[in-house]
Every structure is written in C-alpha cells, then in structure tokens.
Amino acid sequence: MVTFDEKAIIRNYEYIYNQRETIEKIADDVCAEGFDLLFFTSSGGSKAMMEPFNHYLNVYTKLPTDSMVSADFLLTGCNRLTDKSVAFLTSKSGDTKETIKCAEKLKEMGVRIVSVCGVENSKLAALSDYTFAYLDGRPQELVFWFIIGKIMYNCGYFPDYPDFADNLRGLGKALAQVRIDCDEKCRKYAADYGYEPYNIWIGSGDLWPTAYSYSMCVLEESLWIRTKSVTSAEFFHGTLELVDKDVCVTLILGEGVTRSQDERVRDFVKGLSDKFTCFDTKDYRLEGIKEEYRKYLSPIVMGAILQRIGKNAEVLMDHSLEIRRYYRKSEY
Amino acid sequence: MVTFDEKAIIRNYEYIYNQRETIEKIADDVCAEGFDLLFFTSSGGSKAMMEPFNHYLNVYTKLPTDSMVSADFLLTGCNRLTDKSVAFLTSKSGDTKETIKCAEKLKEMGVRIVSVCGVENSKLAALSDYTFAYLDGRPQELVFWFIIGKIMYNCGYFPDYPDFADNLRGLGKALAQVRIDCDEKCRKYAADYGYEPYNIWIGSGDLWPTAYSYSMCVLEESLWIRTKSVTSAEFFHGTLELVDKDVCVTLILGEGVTRSQDERVRDFVKGLSDKFTCFDTKDYRLEGIKEEYRKYLSPIVMGAILQRIGKNAEVLMDHSLEIRRYYRKSEY
Fold it and tell me: pTM of the predicted model, to two decimals?
C-alpha cells in the first residue's frame, strides 16, 4: 500500500481521543451558559466537514441548529442569530480569509465562538471563546462528536452518548483496517477512472457533504479531475439524463437515515453505466464498534475509504495532492 | 429570433398579474392565522425556484424561514416545524412523487399547505389549504412575490410592497424586451459552447438557485450538456483549480446583496479562461421598473436571459428540449 502508515493513523486518532475530557468541557460550558441556536459556519471542505452535525442535530434532537458558508453569512446574515447563539467554526490553517471575517462579525454581534483549528495560536483561535487545536490529530469529526454529542447528551437527547464515546476508543485502529480493506478497490478505481473527462458524484444526508467536498476539494482542487456532485434525491430531477454506458458515476452509500435514497440511485444507475462504482460503508467491518453506533460514523468511515483513492491516484497519476495552480499562489 | 412570441410572453405574464388580489388573499389568510415558520419544500427546479424567497426572508426580515428538498424532508424531518407552521410547495405537473408524499406528511403533522401548480385540480392542490394554478402563466416567481412579499408587508418588513407590486405591472413587457436584447449573445453562446465537454456554472445568493437549476434542469436534463455548478463563494475553495484557457466557465451576476462575490469570480476568471461568459442582469434595461426594486428581480430577469440559450440551442443543436432518456419513460 502506497503512503500508508498504520501507526501514524492510530497515533493521530488517539491524539484527539485522549483529550476527550478537555473537549467535552467546551460542551458543558456552552450548555451551562445556554443557547438559542447552534450555528455552523466556515468555508469549503471545513464547512462541509461540520455539516453532518447540523444534520444529526436536526434528525436526532429538537435543538435549534443552522449552517451557512461564511462568505455568504458576511453578506446575508442569518436572521436567527442573537447574542445568545453559539457559532462553530473550523479551519485547518486557522486563517481562512472569509472564516476570519465571519468570526469578527460574530464577535461584534456577541455570538459565542467555538473554533477547531489545525494549528495552535491561530487568528481564528484568538477570536474564539473556546478553541481546540487538533494539529496532526484525525479525523476532525471526532472533535465535533465530543462537542456536539455531549451537547445533545446534556440537553437530554443522546442518553447513550457516554457509551458511544467510550466505544469510539478503538475506532482509530478500525479505521486503519478500513483503509487496508478498501485499498485494492480504491487503487483500481484511481487507475480506471483517473483520466475520465467527467465524473458524477452522488451522496445523501450526512454523506452529501462528503460527496460535495471530496469531489471539490480533492478531485478538483488537488487532482484537477472534473466533477459534478449532486444529492441522491436531486439526481432524479435532472442529472440522471446524462447517464449513459460511457459516463463515470460514483455513488457513496452510508448507514444514516437517507440510505434508501442512495439505494434508489444504485438500482437505477447499475444497468445503465459501465463505469459505475459504489463505495458503501456497510461493506467494511469496524471491529469493536457497536452496530447501533455505525449510523453516526458514515462520514468518518467514508473519509477513510476515499482517502485511499487520492493516495493511490497521486502515485498512479504522478500528481502530488499538494500542487495548486492558484491557491495561495495568486491574490483573489 | 427562433421560437419567440412576444405577445404570448406578455399575455402569460398578465395571466398571473391580473390575479394579484386573489393571490395576495392567501398571504392575508396565512397572516391572520399566524405562523411560527415559513417552510419551502419541493423537488428539483421547483424547489430551486422558491429558494430565493427563503433568501429574501432571511435578508430582509426577521421572520422564521427554512427550506428543504421534499425527499430529504421525508427521511430527516425538519425539527423547527410544528402545527403552527406554513409550508409552500410547487410542482408544474402537480404530481411530482416526492413532493406529493411530502405534502401528505405535512398534512398529517397539521402544517398548513400553500401550493402553486401548473395545472388545475392536481393531486398537490387536493392536499393543500391554499392553492393557485398558474397554467400558462409566467414567471412563477411572480406568484411567490404576491404571497411572500405580501406576508413581509403584513408583518411590517416591506412597507414599499404595494408600490413594488404596482410597479411590477409592466414587467411582462420589459421581460419580453430583455429576451430581444440578449438574444444575439445567447445564440452565440449556444453556438460556441453547446458541444463543450464540461461547463462550470457559477452564481450566488438569490441567483445561486438559478445557476444550480438551469445547469441541472435545462443543460443536463433537456440538452444532455455536462455541467458543474458551484456558488461564487465556494468556487474559491476547490473548483477554481480546474480553470484553464480551455475550460468553459459561465458566471451569472445579479443585483442582490451577494453581487460582490460574483465580481470577485469575474475578476479572477477573466484572465484565465478563453471560454468565459458573464450574464449580468445589470446589462439589461427594465423599462418602467424602479431602480430600487431591481434587487428583488435578479432570478426573474436571469430566467428570461437564460431561456434564450435553451431556445437557441435546441434549434442549433437540433435537440428538442422535450426529449428525455429516462424521465417518465422508465420506473425509478
């Protein structure tokens, strides 16, 4: 397996897991102060990474939740926000331009800010009421489970949260194994479709943000592969007409409440495209993880799977994932 | 000009305009009963057509507003909805499968339903508390201005609404003229780019739904042209890396609060792609419409402009906009 380091994967997982109590304390403080809205805002892949938590809050609780891209928020505002609201922002660099401006505006409005950054002492952290730096820790979603899951629990909506969080202790090892188990399929996928002229990516519910951001932030941004992403539901209202034997279609299936939408896409596309691939979290064992918690983990598991496409593609296509034409090379 | 009938355009506009009082009565009844949420839900292009009203309510009022694709709502619910909420649904056929199921679920929950349909006596109308059939009337957004604009006014947020609605009387004629004024540009666009292998479509704010649905429901569904649509804000977080001299990029600019995002895209792309087109509502006169109301009309004006691409493309490419591979031809 190319660029795979099982020990580093487990170590990076444990870096976050071992700070569980510190992170949960943020949730406790936020709950102690009360809130009238949990508001997720950031940019690009970072915003997409948080979006499933907006989804889970809507599906599994009555807590007020909303989300918006930071650049949009700067111009449109969000009319639900008040000085009793709490905003969640995340940025790997900690200095994403629109995200920082958004934090400044939120601070002015008196909205409390919880930030999760990839570096310490970032601009974003300096604007925050609560902050956590994950550094090499992965996956970032784990940080959000310790915050949002604990908020759900504190508010009476997720009584199993302590057991769920305990159960996550071994997930790092399981995710390393997922990478091993999917690698051959992902290597073949990268070899077969890396040079396709057009790639339709489809997902739903808590995996829609993954379909959206993997196609945009990895395939487009890092590998310059042309994509179209669409939700499983909306696929049937236009994009389906593009499907033909020769059109490359990729569907990601998870274990959340919208899985039936993905299955409908699978059943429709499978007889029509000769270049159709399904990546399904159900195909992968998560040793030690209780069956009833798998529905909360689709984005994390799918993230591990899809990472193996990129890692293989960069070697097979001789195209480093770090090359950019424009990002941080020109002003815009 | 191919397939252009100025008289029909004006007649179809007036069909809706002349029922202004009937439509506004829906708003008055909804307000008299009160509401705790205005909820927009439907499927595909119909949902996209309503989305700007969710945007305007957020930007210009403090009224609670939300939106969700019907198929998603069926599986995830919306935790803000109560039996005091009002839902808006629209469907040209009046029998879109997911939209009907959604209406049934809303009815069970005791949510009041306002529907806007393209035919009379539809399944959707039968499930509704209030309904309006626009038949050949266009644009459908006019119906929603008479409902949502009047609700804003009744709730104290849009004091100029009566003058705005009066001012719209002549918009049908102005929109016919927009079509005449843009036709040469749109014909050339269709001729130059109709066979491009990949088309990036970009828009923001109240025009994002237009970028999303025009590319999906016209270019993909009706003309089998491959697209990627992305918001002006999110373009800078991935898709920009695809841009090169040879990549076809189309930007739609409006006159709403997010215009600066579109201008940023324009300034970035113009030196990089030789196949870059901007369609800008500002380039078109709207005779008789007051300057201060243009910001509410970007989707309607852009709809008139883009319609001329499709009308020209279907002739130039000898591909009727009515042909489908799958829609209503197979079960899915």
Answer: 0.98
